[in-house]
Write a structure and sequence with these properties.
- The chain is of the alpha+beta class and 417 residues long.
- 12% of the residues lie in helices and 27% in strands.
- The strands form three sheets. Strands 1, 3, 5, 9, 10, 16 and 18 form a seven-stranded antiparallel beta sheet that branches. A six-stranded antiparallel beta sheet has the order 2-4-17-6-7-8. Strands 11-15-14-13-12 form a five-stranded antiparallel beta sheet, with helices on one face.
- The longest helix is centred in the middle third of the chain and has 14 residues, at 265-278.
């Protein structure tokens, strides 16, 4: 009961009289924060771009440029500037930027740190033994696409016409506003920068159980003040778990009948191919050419539960639930003769790989906020973003509950800022 009371108190919105400085300190005092943009802190001189709060002594405060990736990669549309990101003048930390429903199909602006200014920096979280957390305070007006991360989907898929600058995917980690489960907190990671399970897309992703509402970006101030959501993703390399969190709550999410899902059916096939490979001889449905490094084989030791679905004198069919899978197993004379993956866990998602490491030559994707580079060139997420924080470890549920509490009405302003 004491533990539940503690989480309840953490999840309650912080009183509006708390200062923006206090709220920033709450984020930065959370261990292993490598960068935090509150859209208040800016460069003192020059373009006065938004810069990140970083640990004391850090050499890079990651100024955000404005860009239109369609102009950069397809040679179409106009340049983007800071004028293209309206400011709210309030929010969890005192300000927020708006990602609009752009009607011009050649204009998809985002804020970004170019690769050459982040490669091998603390923001460039990659490789074996690395964990990551992304936390974004946002109000979702519409869409289910990217909020923030290093997630260059590649311009080689040609959905929006042939690009002038063609690059393969350079995905590492990112947080999305749902993707296949619109409005959820969707974490996305990649081991190779490109695709998963022979699909053209990366498919290692999770979805929080809860969903964020859609709120008009031009709603009255009191409505917006009450509408902030805390989206988060964590990847823990020690447990191989990728988890989505909305307002400090992860929750369980399963996908039933994955072989019928438009995208996850390829994860289903990767699971089945891994199973077939372990059975002597060529099995019905087995693809001998399927690459072994793309098998999806979540651990399945002793089942968490077993339910008998059908039973006769010589045959028994069981539903076995494991942490990441539910499988239907057919047995004859006590020996397994067939199995089928009937449900796959989406939260947490089992991810047994390291985060993609781009070549050590300055290549790789930029860090972007509001959108990512992708060939479909869709509008993506729209709404307000009031804070983006990156950590180079997996935060705990208690820590995320504390951070999610910073989503009440605008804090008291700090004139010195």
């Amino acid at each position: 009961m004491k533990h539940l009371l503690f989480l309840t108190l953490l999840a309650a919105p912080i009183h509006a009289a708390e200062s923006a400085t206090d709220r920033v300190a709450t984020v930065m005092d959370t261990p292993n924060c490598v960068a935090f943009w509150d859209f208040v802190k800016r460069e003192a001189d020059g373009a006065q771009r938004f810069i990140a709060h970083v640990p004391q002594g850090a050499a890079n405060d990651f100024p955000l440029d404005a860009g239109n990736y369609i102009k950069d990669y397809w040679g179409e549309g106009r340049e983007a500037t800071y004028v293209d990101f309206p400011l709210l003048g309030r929010g969890p930390f005192g300000n927020a930027v708006r990602i609009r429903k752009e009607e011009d199909k050649t204009f998809r602006p985002f804020l970004f740190v170019p690769r050459e200014r982040l490669h091998d920096s603390p923001l460039d979280i990659k490789g074996a033994g690395k964990s990551v957390s992304v936390v974004v305070w946002a109000i979702r007006e519409s869409g289910n696409h990217a909020l923030a991360g290093i997630w260059h989907e590649g311009t080689d898929l040609n959905h929006g016409g042939a690009a002038k600058v063609v690059q393969r995917g350079q995905r590492q980690y990112a947080l999305f506003a749902g993707l296949n489960k619109g409005g959820s907190a969707c974490g996305h990671v990649s081991e190779n920068g490109a695709s998963s399970f022979l699909n053209k897309y990366a498919l290692h992703k999770c979805n929080s159980a809860d969903l964020s509402p859609e709120v008009p970006a031009d709603a009255p101030a009191d409505v917006l003040d009450a509408s902030w959501q805390c989206f988060a993703m964590t990847f823990n390399h020690e447990t191989n778990e990728l988890t989505g969190w909305l307002n400090g709550v992860s929750g369980d999410r399963w996908l039933d009948n994955p072989k019928k899902d438009g995208l996850i059916k390829d994860a289903y096939n990767a699971y089945m191919q891994g199973h077939f490979h372990q059975v002597p001889g060529l099995q019905d449905g087995e693809d001998a050419s399927f690459p072994a490094d793309q098998y999806y084989k979540p651990p399945e030791g002793e089942p968490l539960s077993v339910k008998v679905l059908r039973e006769s004198a010589d045959e028994r069919v069981e539903l076995r639930e494991h942490r990441y899978t539910k499988i239907e197993v057919t047995m004859r004379n006590g020996k397994e003769v067939a199995r089928d993956l009937v449900a796959l866990r989406l939260n947490p998602w089992w991810y047994p790989h390291a985060l993609y490491t781009p070549a050590n030559d300055g290549t790789g994707g930029p860090f972007t906020i509001g959108r990512v580079i992708h060939s479909s060139r869709s509008v993506g997420f729209t709404g307000w973003i009031g804070g983006v924080a990156i950590f180079d470890r997996a935060l705990s549920g208690e820590e995320l509950a504390k951070l999610s509490a910073i989503r009440s009405a605008a804090p008291v302003a700090n004139p010195s800022r």
